[in-house]
Amino acid sequence: MATKSLTINNKFFEISYEIVNPMATKDIVFLHGWGSNKDIMKNVFSSYLKNFRHVYIDLPGFGKSKNEYVLTTNDYVKITEELLKLLNSSKDIIVGHSYGGKVATLLNPKNLVLLSSAGILEEKSLDVKIKILFAKIFNFLGLKNITKRFRSKDVDTMSENMYATFKNVVNEDFSSNFSNFQNNALIFWGDKDSATSLESGKKISNLIKKSTFISYDGDHYFFAKNAKDICERIENGIC
């Protein structure tokens, strides 16, 4: 594990990352999802794709990369872009899981790999709608301690700035971003995913013109049990 210091928009960041197969000449960059970290991605993928230099990154606010600011998805893109420059990293392949898929898409790699990517707005369940309503009411009344009880499990232990960041990014519609992506894309999904539905994956595949869609038996972390097949498809499907 190593770190790089960088400044974006007058904000200082110390980004934790890890490199596997450092002598390889082509790069594959891994971006984790919200509430996750680089170790989850590394544990799954590091034993495959031996011909690539793997770059595993803790996005700010996760893993060992601290964050003291309220950020947007564009901030995460700028931070990641700057880190890749500091690492002399090409954007041959960028793999993004869940929220990391949105960041990966905006980085515009030569080859995009999406694992149950976020970015398609889905209808919220009645239970979630009720929680949002009560949270807004209590917040309006100034009862912030009560409001916290209605937060998503993804953020209930996070700092106020990360909760504000979550609110900035959670309801983004990336349909136009997917549609505008012109390069090669491999889209992998778990058919029992309840966080980002299978229908969302199919929609993303329809939006990205040069894409291939493959689903597996599994949930939001389906890739943990299907890494070998996914990596073989990456090796055979990149341009």
How would you characterize this protein structure?
- GO terms for molecular function: hydrolase activity.
- It comes from Arcobacter ellisii.
- This is 2-hydroxy-6-oxohepta-2,4-dienoate hydrolase.
- With 239 residues, the protein is of the alpha/beta class.
- It is built from 9 helices and 8 strands.
- It folds into 2 domains: 186 residues, Rossmann fold; 46 residues, no CATH class.
- The protein is 36% helix and 22% strand.
- Strands 1-2-4-3-5-6-7-8 form an 8-stranded mixed beta sheet, sandwiched between helices.
- Helix 2 packs across helix 3.
- About 4% of the residues have low confidence.
List its traits:
hydrolase, hydrolase activity, alpha/beta, globular, Rossmann fold, 2 domains, 239 residues, 8-stranded mixed sheet, 9 helices
Sketch the major β-sheet: 8 strands, mixed
How confident is the prediction overall: mean pLDDT? Answer: 89
- Structural class, by secondary structure, is alpha/beta
Q: Strand order, main sheet: write it out.
A: 1-2-4-3-5-6-7-8
Keywords: Hydrolase
Protein name: 2-hydroxy-6-oxohepta-2,4-dienoate hydrolase
GO molecular function, one term: hydrolase activity
InterPro entries: AB_hydrolase_1, AB_hydrolase_fold, AB_hydrolase_sf
Write the layout of secondary structure elements.
Blueprint: E1 2-8, E2 11-20, E3 26-31, H1 38-45, E4 52-57, H2 73-86, E5 93-97, H3 99-106, E6 111-115, H4 126-140, H5 144-147, H6 160-169, H7 175-180, E7 184-190, H8 198-207, E8 211-216, H9 227-237
Parallel strand pairs: 3-4, 3-5, 5-6, 6-7, 7-8
Antiparallel strand pairs: 1-2, 2-4
Helix pairs in contact: 2-3
